[in-house]
What we know:
Layout: H1 16-32, E1 39-40, H2 41-47, H3 54-62, E2 75-76, H4 93-100, H5 113-116, H6 120-123, H7 126-135, H8 145-153
Parallel strand pairs: 1-2
Helix pairs in contact: 1-7, 2-3
Amino acid sequence: MPDTSSTASAGEPINRPGAAHLGAQVYALVRACPPGRVTTYGWIAAAMGYSRAARMVGWFMNKSHHADGVPAQRVVNSKGELSGSWAFGQRGRMRQLLENEGIVFNADDKIDLKRFGWNPTIDLNDDERNAILASADATPADVDDELLRLLMDDPASPFRIRPAEG
């Protein structure tokens, strides 16, 4: 039975186990993205139930080099642009990995998301998506202090700790 104490809800403070669970869900969905397809930070966030948390997914993807088997090259921004390409060690490496999978870039160096996009909210049924998210319980992500700080303090985080009104 999964440990529900680590489940994070938007608008509530997050702890390290909750963050590790979120990261595992991000990575599980990215691993599910088929070769030759790309997904976006926003699509991953929405599939997890955080429709306005694309940046949060980006923070986890920035740390994904510590996670085994995460095809991070398959996550692009909402315009079909390569926003994380420097994370691959050299300029052009992310594009090369995608082209090796059959992804085609247009003259503006963008990917046609209608042709190559994989949106887990649309392309998976509820049972498939829930099974992928549930499988993440077995492999929590590493969460460093910087990532936890972003989740607790950044204005874009759904878990930002806000001062009490009064």
